[in-house]
Amino acid sequence: MNLFADALNWILDPANYVGPGGIPVRLVEHLGFTVVAVSLAALIAVPFGFLIGHTGRGRGLAVATSGGLRAIPTLGLLTLVALWVGIGLGAPYVALTILAIPPILAGAYTGFEAIDRTVIDSARSVGMSEAQIMRTVEVPLGLPLLIAGIRSATLQVVATATLAAYVADFGLGRFLFAGLKTRDYAEMLGGSILVILLAVLLEGIFTGVQRLVVPKGVAAARPSVDRGRSARPASGMDPAITKGTH
Amino acid sequence: MTWIWSNLDLLWDRTLDHLVLSVPPLLLSFLFAVPLGWVANRYRISRGVILTASGLLYAIPSLPLFFVIPAVVGTSLRSPLNLIIALTLYGVALMVRVVADGLASVDKDVRQSAVAVGYSGWSIFWQVELPLAAPVLLAGLRVVAVSTVSLATVGAVIGAQSLGSLFTDGFQRGIQAEIIAGIVLTVVLALLLDGALVLLGRILLPWTRLASTSRRALRAARVTEVSE
């Protein structure tokens, strides 16, 4: 327990809160990086996911690509891209945006697929255009699963951004690697605890958001248990892990 | 390519290291998850507590966890045991939900029929519920296998030898072929373990018609992934 006391002292030490390598700066770097990487991934994945979900086409390809991407070890991708583009933020941005795409893509199209077909047929039969169906029916009803996908992606990026400090001088992961180099266990453990707190905090926030985005009528009519239990795609070998590659 | 041919021994050694790190967590997480999942499925209160805890556990980033475990358990930072413990924890976090869902998926009528013909609680679990939930458990194990193999590489940055060492070494020495070989071997190892589990399922679960059940099982596993 002494080790944890040391780590706590490290976290509470005012000296660690000043300067360019202080905890606040690293925290902002970490969060800023996460927001940018997840946003980039969402910009790419959400339109494709909606299109796949709406048309029902290209799902096999999306599942296969996502499955393949998920099996790739993060550290390998990170170091390989870092060798290509050099040390710095470039490699983490490329690697982590790629890693954040599969869960968001899956969230976007499974959200559409989980909708009762008769609801969409009804929308069509009362004369809604395809664009209207997407905007007013499919997107709101599919939103909870899309948010679930974004949540997975965010947690994965927050976790992997720690690892990215191996190839770039940024984020909370620096404390882990700096401590490792100087054998300062308080710094390693303190940094680790900060990252864990950040991840758990984000998990909590997303759980709340996920509840908020369920449309009122749906929340009243549907027991939360079968959320998303319908038409999930199947494939031969799909790791099916969104947060697997920490 | 020449690098790969002249370092086949190294690649083989790291692959073995990797197997030592990833197979025990796979077995251990299954052993721990079955009773926990049973408890989670049995009582409403324990379901909430266990599933919330496993969700939180799974949200913990792996690298920080590798640093925290030595402080809790008292192992040395570079010990492979840390990695095995951490990977087991992730495996359990993932499998508990699968086990609970798998057991819940057993038809109530089937369970009641078993009670009616005189099965005791203990034998219902072993002879009715577990076999019927088995395809779902297998699908969950496949997910754990692939993620464990991938996660085990992370330990390399703190010095635990695995296929991940090829990434750190290749990065530091600027050898692209080494990193690529590491990625390929990791993916291949994941596929092999996955294939081995599928094969094991065919041998151990002859009563499942694989074509239909594996699809249902995979779906159940994937629902776990997004909706959890």
From TrEMBL, chain A:
It comes from the Bacteria. Keywords: Membrane, Transmembrane, Transmembrane helix, Transport. The keyword Transferase does not apply. It is found in: Cell membrane; Membrane. Pfam families: BPD_transp_1 (PF00528). InterPro entries: ABC_transp_perm/SBD (IPR051204), MetI-like (IPR000515), MetI-like_sf (IPR035906). It is a multi-pass membrane protein. The chain crosses the membrane at residues 31-53, 60-87, 93-112, 157-177, 189-209. Residues 27-206 form the ABC transmembrane type-1 domain. Its main location: membrane. The keyword Transport applies. Residues 224-246 are annotated as: Disordered. PROSITE patterns: ABC_TM1. PANTHER family: GLYCINE BETAINE/L-PROLINE TRANSPORT SYSTEM PERMEASE PROTEIN PROW (PTHR30177), POSSIBLE OSMOPROTECTANT (GLYCINE BETAINE_CARNITINE_CHOLINE_L-PROLINE) TRANSPORT INTEGRAL MEMBRANE PROTEIN ABC TRANSPORTER PROZ (PTHR30177:SF33). Belongs to the binding-protein-dependent transport system permease family. This is ABC transporter permease. It comes from Cryobacterium breve. The lineage of its organism: Bacteria, Bacillati, Actinomycetota, Actinomycetes, Micrococcales.
Automatic annotation (TrEMBL), chain B:
It is a multi-pass membrane protein. It comes from the Bacteria. Pfam families: BPD_transp_1. InterPro entries: ABC_transp_perm/SBD, MetI-like, MetI-like_sf. Residues 15-197 form the ABC transmembrane type-1 domain. Keywords: Membrane, Transmembrane, Transmembrane helix, Transport. This is ABC transporter permease subunit. Belongs to the binding-protein-dependent transport system permease family. The keyword Cell membrane does not apply. It comes from Cryobacterium breve. The chain crosses the membrane at residues 20-41, 48-69, 81-100, 136-159, 179-205. Its main location: membrane. It is found in: Cell membrane; Membrane.
